[in-house]
């Protein structure tokens, strides 16, 4: 895989995992975060989920599930930090 294709692939994966992570967190629990933060959370969630799935020798469904779960937790944590502990109505 050449470098430009790899970079685009990583960014798309991060965006998809980030969006899926945001979709899992209920709307009343998440603060609005931008597209860049969604991609960054998705990239981090994908990387951490991959590490965990590799350590337990999981297949691609488990890997995707762990990536989305980690991204959802990160979205929740970032939203809680961004809202200053306030709940949104």
Distance between the termini: 47 Å
Order of helices and strands: HHH
Task: Report the strand count.
Answer: 0
Structural class: mainly alpha
Q: Major beta sheet, specifics?
A: none
Q: Could you tell me the strand content as a percent range?
A: under 5%
What integer is the average pLDDT?
78
Percent in helix: over 70%
Low-pLDDT ranges: none
Shape: globular
In DSSP terms (H or I, runs of 4 or more residues), the helix count works out at 3
Rg from C-alpha positions? 14 Å
Short précis:
The protein has 89 residues and is mostly helical.
Question: What does this protein look like?
Answer:
With 89 residues, this protein is an all-alpha fold. The chain contains three helices and no strands. Helix 1 packs across helix 3 and helix 2 crosses helix 3. 25% of the residues are buried.
